[in-house]
Design goal:
globular, 59% helix, 0% strand, single chain, mainly alpha
Length: 304
């Protein structure tokens, strides 16, 4: 299956700028894809049972020499092919979710506290998950896309999301880039009617809280410039405070995770209410009216 590289006019226009500047390569996209697929098939066909190159394999020219990524794709295909690994052959997208979550958390640990070798290994584990899911899709009726389609889709997305790099749009600050992204997302996903659409609610509750607070600031439900209720200046101060809150909840038989998620559902309701008011009211109400919105955030008790 081949996915069009540039699926909307914005991406197509930007692509023309890329192709005009891409004089360093003599290959067209189709030629490049065919070379990549050929290299992957060459590796797959020449792998022996122990993963080594077969002595009977045809010699490969320097132009067609497989990359290490080609080799990984070919190894994955062999593992899942008839005569390969029974465990790999039985997996589905759904059965692999827990491994993707686990590997992602291990990558986060490697980024935050690991060594160069840890980061190299964990990036590889996450990459393997992507390659595995793509191979699954390639052999699943109704899906039928492969890793080349995944890469083509991501290339088109990145080019389309960066018209200030690949086109004539001007964006000299990070805030200007974010504004461009918001406009592009509105065009790309016209079915979304709320700033909450597209947020994965299965995120860990603290990460979800951070995401939702950003959306609340964006539409004026909360004042981003307001003084912090609990002043902390460093993560070294914040960490023990969060742990103390969880410990206090646990000692009293309360579920801190559930409590935060319940409060976040209330914040989502307030955001959607504010959006509905903005759509139906000719004159939007004061978004910072405490009688209307507090996002479940209350001040600390006054000192006696």
């Amino acid at each position: 299956m081949t996915t069009p590289l540039f699926s909307n006019p914005t991406n197509a226009a930007n692509a023309s700028n890329v192709s005009n500047d891409a004089s360093a390569s003599d290959d067209s996209p189709d030629e490049t894809d065919s070379h990549t697929v050929h290299r992957a098939h060459t590796v797959h066909d020449s792998l022996t049972a122990d993963g080594a190159q077969s002595s009977d394999a045809s010699p490969v020219s320097e132009h067609d020499a497989p990359s290490k990524l080609d080799e990984l794709i070919a190894v994955t295909a062999r593992l899942r092919a008839p005569g390969g690994c029974p465990w790999d052959a039985e997996q589905t997208h759904e059965s692999l979710v827990k491994y993707l979550v686990e590997e992602t958390h291990e990558l986060v640990d490697a980024i935050e506290t690991g060594t160069r070798e840890d980061l190299l290994e964990e990036l590889g584990d996450v990459l393997y998950q992507v390659v595995f899911h793509a191979d699954l899709a390639a052999h699943t009726p109704g899906e039928e896309f492969d890793i080349q389609d995944v890469a083509a889709h991501m290339t088109a997305k990145m080019v389309g999301r960066h018209p200030h790099v690949f086109g004539d749009t001007v964006a000299e600050t990070a805030d200007a880039v974010v504004a461009i992204w918001d406009d592009l997302k509105a065009v790309e996903k016209p079915g979304r009617t709320s700033v909450l659409d597209g947020i994965p609610l299965g995120m860990p509750s603290l990460a979800l809280a951070d995401k939702l607070l950003g959306k609340a600031h964006k539409i004026g439900v909360l004042d981003e410039a307001a003084a912090p209720i609990i002043p902390v200046s460093t993560e070294d101060e914040l960490g023990p405070l969060l742990l103390a809150i969880v410990a206090s909840a646990k000692s009293q038989g309360l579920d801190a995770e559930r409590a935060l998620r319940t409060t976040l559902r209330g914040l989502q309701d307030e955001i959607r209410e504010a959006e509905a008011d903005a759509r139906t009211s000719a004159r939007p109400s004061n978004p910072f009216d405490a009688d209307n919105f507090d996002a479940g955030i209350v001040a600390l008790p006054a000192a006696d």
